[in-house]
Amino acid sequence: MMRYEKPQRRQEDEGPKNYAAGRRAALELLKDASSRSRIEKIYLAHGIQGPQIGELLHLIRSNRVTVGELDRVKFRELERRAIPDGTDSQGVIVLFSQRLYAELEDILTPPPPQEEGAGGWTPLLIALDGVEDPHNIGAIIRSAEAAGAHAILLPKRGAVMTPAVYKASAGAASNLPIVKYGNLEQTIRNMQEEFFVTCVGLAGDAPETIYEANLTGPICFVTGSEEKGLHRLVRERCEKVVSIPLAGKTASLNASVASGVALFEAVRQRSKSLNDRA
């Protein structure tokens, strides 16, 4: 399983994405732990062969790196976008990030007591469960950063931080810490047991609404995909599952809109709670 270097609590962004082309370049990135941790996805042209391909596939599988096989037409389109200088890709293109991902433990560790506001440390996070559409991911990141969330949790495989995600986030991906998780159920358990974070799943069929739930404490919302919703074990692990009541004929909201509504309801409740205590 891939390991990520431990960053500071907030990472500066060094640019959206970079591409590396060629089999040797891909092998070098995969063999080095620090560079391997920044690989988002490896694209392979359909049918490529050669002595280095077997080693490449072995490293991809053993390190659980996301890989995509493209037909020749789509691969050439990617080459034109990703490698404008015409470097020979040899059928292999690596999409990698310059930024380091945040560690969940760093995000959830309270700041020192002497820092202003440390006494009221109430983390607000959002985790994505099966959301893979880059526009939805980018829009959720944008809403989370605007709401003052402390981080977004993305799977190590599936939710790839592509240029489309950065574009859809309107720059928010440069300012919001991103944590990559391996197993969401275990990650939720860790947040609950080690950091006393309440994990709240979003589901249209939940009887309790976000307006009835108490969202003033440390919260991690969990958003599922529009097609499948939350995975069963993830849903069962959440302390609460809440819905967003709809008044019109529309049956559901998309993942990014639902996430934004939930995040800002938590912000509203927290603001009201502070005013009530003042």
Protein topology:
Blueprint lengths: L17 E4 L1 H9 L1 H4 L2 E7 L5 H12 L4 E4 L1 H11 L9 E5 L7 H5 L15 E6 L4 H13 L4 E5 L7 H6 L9 E4 L2 H12 L2 E5 L5 E2 L9 E6 L7 H6 L2 E4 L11 H23 L1
Parallel strand pairs: 2-3, 5-6, 5-10, 6-7, 8-10, 8-11, 9-11
Antiparallel strand pairs: 1-4, 2-4
Helix pairs in contact: 1-3, 6-10
Q: Can you walk through the features of this model?
A:
This protein is α/β, with parallel strands linked by helices. The protein folds into two domains: 18-96, 60s Ribosomal Protein L30, Chain: A; 104-277, SPOUT methyltransferase, trefoil knot domain (Alpha/beta knot). It is 36% helix and 19% strand. The chain has helices at 23-31, 33-36, 51-62, 72-82, 104-108, 134-146, 163-168, 184-195, 232-237, 255-277, and strands at 18-21, 39-45, 67-70, 92-96, 124-129, 151-155, 178-181, 198-202, 208-209, 219-224, 240-243. It has a seven-stranded parallel sheet with strand order 7-6-5-10-8-11-9, with helices on both faces. A four-stranded mixed sheet has the order 1-4-2-3. Helix 6 links the parallel strand 5 and strand 6. The longest helix has 23 residues, at 255-277. The protein is elongated. The protein starts with 17 loop residues before the first strand and ends with a helix.
In brief:
The protein is 36% helix and 19% strand. The chain has helices at 23-31, 33-36, 51-62, 72-82, 104-108, 134-146, 163-168, 184-195, 232-237, 255-277; strands spanning 18-21, 39-45, 67-70, 92-96, 124-129, 151-155, 178-181, 198-202, 208-209, 219-224, 240-243.
